[in-house]
Fold:
Amino acid sequence: MEIDTGNTAWVLVSAALVLFMTPGLALFYGGMVRAKNVLGMLMQNFFCMGLISVLWALVGFSLAFGDGGDFIGSFEFFGLKDLATTEALPGYVDDLALTIPPMAFFAFQMMFAVITPALFTGATADRLKFGGFVVFLGLWSLLVYSPVAHWVFSPKGWLFQKGALDFAGGAVIHINAGVAALVLVLIVGKRRGWPKEPMHPHSLPLTLLGTGILWFGWFGFNAGSALGANGLAAQALVNTNLAAAAAMLSWLLVEKIRDGKATTLGGASGAVAGLVAITPCAGFVGGVAPIIIGAIAGIVCYLAIQLKYKFGYDDSLDVVGVHLVGGIVGSVLLGFFSDTSVNSFGFDSVFFGGSSELLVNQLIAIGSVIVFSGVVTFVLAKIVDLVIGLRVTEDQEAEGLDTALHAETAYALGGRIG
Amino acid sequence: MEIDTGNTAWVLVSAALVLFMTPGLALFYGGMVRAKNVLGMLMQNFFCMGLISVLWALVGFSLAFGDGGDFIGSFEFFGLKDLATTEALPGYVDDLALTIPPMAFFAFQMMFAVITPALFTGATADRLKFGGFVVFLGLWSLLVYSPVAHWVFSPKGWLFQKGALDFAGGAVIHINAGVAALVLVLIVGKRRGWPKEPMHPHSLPLTLLGTGILWFGWFGFNAGSALGANGLAAQALVNTNLAAAAAMLSWLLVEKIRDGKATTLGGASGAVAGLVAITPCAGFVGGVAPIIIGAIAGIVCYLAIQLKYKFGYDDSLDVVGVHLVGGIVGSVLLGFFSDTSVNSFGFDSVFFGGSSELLVNQLIAIGSVIVFSGVVTFVLAKIVDLVIGLRVTEDQEAEGLDTALHAETAYALGGRIG
Amino acid sequence: MEIDTGNTAWVLVSAALVLFMTPGLALFYGGMVRAKNVLGMLMQNFFCMGLISVLWALVGFSLAFGDGGDFIGSFEFFGLKDLATTEALPGYVDDLALTIPPMAFFAFQMMFAVITPALFTGATADRLKFGGFVVFLGLWSLLVYSPVAHWVFSPKGWLFQKGALDFAGGAVIHINAGVAALVLVLIVGKRRGWPKEPMHPHSLPLTLLGTGILWFGWFGFNAGSALGANGLAAQALVNTNLAAAAAMLSWLLVEKIRDGKATTLGGASGAVAGLVAITPCAGFVGGVAPIIIGAIAGIVCYLAIQLKYKFGYDDSLDVVGVHLVGGIVGSVLLGFFSDTSVNSFGFDSVFFGGSSELLVNQLIAIGSVIVFSGVVTFVLAKIVDLVIGLRVTEDQEAEGLDTALHAETAYALGGRIG
Amino acid sequence: MKLITAIIKPFKLDEVKEALKGEGVSGMTVSEVQGFGRQRGHTEVYRGAEYQIDFVPKVRLEILAGEGDVDRIVDAVVRAAKTDKIGDGKVWITDVASAIRIRTGERDGDAL
Amino acid sequence: MKLITAIIKPFKLDEVKEALKGEGVSGMTVSEVQGFGRQRGHTEVYRGAEYQIDFVPKVRLEILAGEGDVDRIVDAVVRAAKTDKIGDGKVWITDVASAIRIRTGERDGDAL
Amino acid sequence: MKLITAIIKPFKLDEVKEALKGEGVSGMTVSEVQGFGRQRGHTEVYRGAEYQIDFVPKVRLEILAGEGDVDRIVDAVVRAAKTDKIGDGKVWITDVASAIRIRTGERDGDAL
Ligand SMILES: Nc1ncnc2c1ncn2[C@@H]1O[C@H](COP(=O)(O)OP(=O)(O)O)[C@@H](O)[C@H]1O
Ligand SMILES: Nc1ncnc2c1ncn2[C@@H]1O[C@H](COP(=O)(O)OP(=O)(O)O)[C@@H](O)[C@H]1O
Ligand SMILES: Nc1ncnc2c1ncn2[C@@H]1O[C@H](COP(=O)(O)OP(=O)(O)O)[C@@H](O)[C@H]1O
Structure:
């Protein structure tokens, strides 16, 4: 099929926007931790841009989109081999034929691979050992992310072929990273002093800035997944904005009712919850569906967060509550709101003259990603924890990651003492 | 008319850029207020992204671009009805026919609706009651913004048909929001202690960051209004950059002469003044006109700001001085610099072999927007003030909006006490 | 040749992205200086957006891309004259014919002109007199940048015709600005107290934010230089990301080995070093070459920075170590990794079945830019220093640029005293 | 010589400063502190978790003064800092064995 | 009346505050300070250049107390702030000539 | 035992610290303060509105010392902090009833 410059322009821009989300996430998380740990958090996120990009080029992409079996790709694109010259990527033929250079598709997908593991760094905030993180990060990306991406995104993957829908990565990115987050916090344990000792965000303006960047970048994430500049991309962009907006409103409303005050962190968190939930749906729903999906996500995620106090797991920045739960909410609701009049590549859902088949497939996809990601993450984390260690020492944790691990202090505002 | 992927890509990117301007504006304003009020400011701006997006989808867009009369649209697109499938938007036919999906046009316009009321939050900084703001915001967007957008932007609107020019919203956005700002400060009154007590910006780096984001996003705002990726969009982008640049220089020059020092806040303010002034002109002028327009705007806005001390209205972050005045400067100068060799859809102006007809139409547009927006804003604000209240209590104002309204503190940098 | 909307959309977006890099650079540098000098640094960078944009429109572009001789352009486009209507820019004919409006090309190149001198402000941090800087800035842009841009970027330029390759400005931007930085620090001298007195970054989160913006914008910088939305642009975008990633990793590795700790500033610095090195190569190399180039750049730049302590020049924020050295590394390595199968407009290099001819041309380009930029920068700086002065007084330096030059303080976080 | 230390409400600093200037006080040293006392702090809520903040921002003044001026200065501070609301703060006086002006080495009275 | 000044480790502030509440202390003033002493600081590295930071973040408490309560209060502070690691800090006691509550003008004992 | 309090120019902190180390001072507590005095502050301008800032950043040192060491220490501070320009600051000395090292409970002389 012909390369279309307009579609290519849109996908290249989208790749840039998705890359920009990782610094945005770093700031979103960084603002929420205490001042002594902000660099540790920024470092973990920026490091994903470094390590994952290189791994993706060497082998990650090939494992995800190479012509392998139902469960994993191949090594055919090892080190970008043949990618620049290949006619069509495995499975992207006939109606699925791409109108953009395979290299543009590679770039776009690289940014997804980068941000996915960055998501779970929020759960283990303030206590991860950097060396252990580095090794775990590489292993997880190759052994968890690439396979799951193959299952769902590659036309060769079993969930793709089964007919599970995931427009921009509700399962591949958010559920996947959310499960990993949960397993990691169970393995590394709570921050000392949590939940007794207050651990307030050290800079909410930083978090709000990160939220703005995430919202902005998410247009590339979701609308870019249309892989073209067309009505579907426009629909996905609109859905993305409306879900974020509605979730912000519903989250603030719950806060107002339950806590008496609407907070800026709540508004930001709600927006992100909505963005997560609409991710799998962005190119399959229309009308007011994104508003409903977002509104539900805002409420459910707020409530889900409260569980950590009940069950006592220190999901520090609520990756489980927002990404795992939000991803599930979106993937399930897609079984009710998917509408083929929006996207003929989708399937009709319960509310749109379809059967419950799609819903069942969605549940299968959710379940299998949870099980696979949960088990492999557990094994990898355990191994790394034993061999290298995943957690800093008590003294390092008390001192803070910035000086203890990175020999830096984030701020010298007085800039006069020390 | 055919959908063009290149034009669609550009408009989608532009929509994303304009959405990004609202967080940018939040930071631009947030840096200028005192540390105890920064979250209150960020909240008001981010909340616009939430509430206005949803209202726009439900009815706002339909009121602005539906097929109504000269003064207001219709309910035909209520809840996005038929928007995904409509052939052409009312009035966008023949030479005005769009080459992008109506949904992309909707997305682009949604971001304009979001940022417009966000602009006036700077005028009422540090003293707005959140509940009152929320209600006023919704009413204003539907009863002031949508009608004015219909008048000027919709081919069905009376000012559009009369031949008034407003490329990207000098009147619809800046004059409109600026008038609302003036009316609001007159109704809510001054901050306690103003102007005696100094109320310095708490973080100019935040304000400069916001300026950078605004400048960046404004390319989507102005050049995106060409609704295509063509020579006109390029011209608009260049004009936008040159006007911002020239206004920065002229503002700094006036500062240097009048105050003895050129300030970073001045450079940032000048740039924004230039961006405001070029907004109505961006796609209608060429050559060095943007430099002249920008240079004039920088000087006039600087001087306009000083009026608040003379007349004693507390336009806290100078929304009137920059947006109302800057919008008027641009709209009037368009009557002198508009050039049909740049854009055949424009009209020749006084300096470009035209009559004064365009200038007269510009004045009519300015006048009618000022009167309409002024009156309706006044009525709405008065009602909300009586029913809910628009201003916080003395104690809340003294304590600061962050803890008093949102139960949060922006910074915990020492992160050691409290 | 026909205007292509997709290509135009991509170049317009790229222009916006490159403009956004200058605020990004301002924050990158601003975070590294002490709190009393951050506004001074932001001001110098933002001021480039003001002054250079206007100069570029008036004469800078014409000198760079006008139809002059081998060494300098002409005045034909003075004040944007004829630019909107010109058929083709001088030399951009036949296979070089542009598929975008000349005005879009102008916009894209304007942003390059803006950021180049902004780069050297990092070297002279904390001590430049603003008035002297302003004058030097204008002179340098017209007398150093425009000619060098003509040599290398314009098809009429002697280095272009000689066959030296510089995809996005390794020589024109980074080597050029890096040499200027070195000359400037030699003329203005060290900061008082350097290197004895510690001068730590006052806000590394600001620096990391700047890094994120730079990385994001660099996609426009490098991939936009393909001047179209095609496979080459995709390749350039991928190369850009991989080089930044690999350089981050190699820099952190050296730190870990040499200093015992990997630092966030190191990760950020490595990424920038990789982005600099890949700039000349972005559209000429493929496969794993960008990873190799980036990895080498990360190591070499880290080591290069240490030279300032040995030789005692106060290149405050390491512009020489990162931009001059990184630019040379990339330009030289291009002589080994250039591959015509990636870009038929390139030439085969030592490792890719080519002769050493390209390498020789690269060395000629590097050498001539260093000599020309070095000499002219020296003369201009000396003159400005004598006539106006380039350095602040001792007291101003001790007080800090923010209050001393700009009558502002960056932060009032307690916001309670003074 | 005495040292007068005062804890006041931040927004009262300017008034106190002016009052002291009025009393001919030639200098003082000020710092940001957090106070704990009868005045209640505030509540913060982060994602549904509520925290009570006991500390209230205050400003701390230190004024070296000759014996003779102490009462006048203290009265001035108290008058200017008073709002009659809980949390106005405290003033206390301690003896100073001796004081030196670094620039000149002048001692005690001459050091001010 | 006495003034008790204590320099403690920041993360001990809450415990000390609770201990003081337990002793019926009605108020205190706290500030962030940097300490230099036996406890070593940390090293920072910026682009290969190493710096030794001598200062360690500490919190400074000031408590006005009647003669009779001083020992009890000091003991409470010492007990709560102790970690037995170098850097726990110091407590010192100085005489206060007199104290005033700004709100009421009450003096000395009544000022607390 | 005595408490030596010094207000100095921020950029002099390092020199003073070294001088004190030289005198065998084993510790000190430092904080950021704002000074008001003969030394004029600076002017700030925001969008054409001018403000005079009276306060100047200073650093405050507190040094507990035995009677015998006070003069030596004070001299060292004065010598190191001196620039002969207005604003060099003050040093003052107050009596300390007693001092305790939290870690060990050691008192007075042994607490240092
Ligand atoms: N015993 C004390 N020692 C030191 N400072 C105190 C003491 N009691 C109160 N303060 C300071 O005085 C401030 C005001 O005290 P508070 O009891 O709140 O109000 P009031 O002084 O009006 O009774 C407190 O915030 C604290 O900074
Ligand atoms: N002579 C002193 N004067 C004032 N403060 C001191 C003095 N010595 C120590 N300090 C303070 O006490 C803190 C702890 O002292 P340090 O010697 O580190 O541990 P320790 O008190 O356990 O021996 C220091 O960080 C400093 O703030
Ligand atoms: N009476 C005072 N009480 C407390 N601190 C003072 C007093 N006078 C001056 N200071 C402190 O000393 C600093 C220097 O005083 P200043 O009068 O400016 O210069 P100098 O001490 O050289 O005469 C001031 O900034 C302030 O912090």
